[in-house]
Fold these 2 entries.
Entry 1:
Amino acid sequence: MIGPVVTGKPIRSRIMSIGQAPGIREGELGQPFAWTAGKTLFKWFASIGRDECAFRESIYMAAVCRCFPGKLPKGGDRVPNKQEIAACRHWLDREFELLSPELVIPIGKLAIAQFLPTTQLGDVIGQQHRIRRNNHEFDLIPLPHPSGLSTWFKTEPGKSLLEQALKQIARHPAWASSAATCDPD
């Protein structure tokens, strides 16, 4: 893994989003989802009433791994391995302990796999799941990864399942109660 460690703002929120790991640009920009995938992700959230600035001010942003895992030889980012995931696991556990989120939004297969046994996106996207972790119950609404390399959310059934998941997030009580005013500076 390649530093620096990248985390979201230290805010108290009833909602936690969880990505895979920072990309190559996030370290220099100092925040998660700060580059291409973030542009897509924040368009999704803007479609349900929360632009990027308001999202960053109202949703706690975590990741399975906190450092850039490196590039693949043929392009794209390397997926963190089991040892790297285990080494970062205590951070996510501690964040759950501190925040006790009511809604968790895992973004991408690796984040989803931390909570659900299946990694087939069509089996889990578009559904709300009730999860128990470390004696804490919460709702989980997974999203696909917004990577530019992915076509899953651009074609059916992914396109419809993504839309369904976003509607479920928008209807969730924690989403409505966590709206934030935003000062982009």
Entry 2:
Amino acid sequence: MTVTRRRFLAATAAACSLPRLAAFASPNASRDVAWLADVQRPPAVVPAGDAPLSPLLVDDANHPITTRAAWQARREQIRAWWLEFLGEFHVGRPATPEFEVIEEDRRDGVVRQRIRYEVEPGLPVEAYLLKPQPLPKSCPGAVALHATTRLTIRQSAGVEGDPEKAFGLKLAQRGFVTICPRCFLWSDDLSIAYQKHVDAFKARHPGSRGMAKMLYDAIVAVDILSRVPEVDPTRLAAVGHSLGAKEALYLAAFDDRIRAAVSSEGGIGIRFSNWEASWYLGDAVRREPLAHDHHELLSLIAPRAFLLLGGDSADGDRSWPFIAAALNVYRLYAEEIPGPPRVGLFNHRQGHSVPPEAEQRIYQWIEAYT
């Protein structure tokens, strides 16, 4: 069967989006993180110089949007524009690919399996699948997306590398089943340059941007995770740092199964980091003014929980306008969703890193809102 990536995403949304708004309220919604108000407070000074963001709550006739119904129509317009911008992605595969276990080990109360599956026909990819032991009959799940590193999935699964970025291992130790998929920029042969992988992808799928591939692969990982018998498919999260933060943002925006997400130092603004790279959005975003930016993706995530982490490198105080814009959309759900909006920015001011306080907040956020 051959389907467009757009149709696949539409089918995913039809199957797993949560139009029943009560489903957006986390099981732990009555136990918001203690610091929620802090991450919704504007910084004392927002750095000047960035172009103002386009308005979210304005319709085609330039009338203000004040109702959920009017917002839903606007939301569909935003979503459709981004899917068109990302480009068609034709791929044939079963709804959820089967996987094989390549190796297995145990560490600190976690069973860690290296698995292989076909993300596209004839194109295998590896991931780590981690399960807490003992494994509950029903538990939440999380997708942990690795940063730019030759360690790839070994980092997020805690096999080696910076322990503060071992999101998959540490969430498994907290009772989550986690999957750590490898980004398409790497393969088993680490001598292959990024661009060769990008060129091969674009030869297979002309007109698609690299971010479309990253998004698609992350959705496949969610498919696999949600089919693990012990995983509650209504309680899924996503987290990533740097490269992985970009993927987590797009995954949360276009897959409504993700109920809570944390994006660490990915650069929320298109001008904030290397979004022009061929493996992300391409150089068109630098050559010409783009009327759209990632505050629109944040609006697609509402009212689900989203935390942006910055260190005044890729993200920080200059990221605040994106959160402020999204907050206005989140507030449209106030009557249906109890409690305050669950979106915010935490700036740890320690550069492109995951310092201890930021790492702690990642797990607190995901545990509270998944």
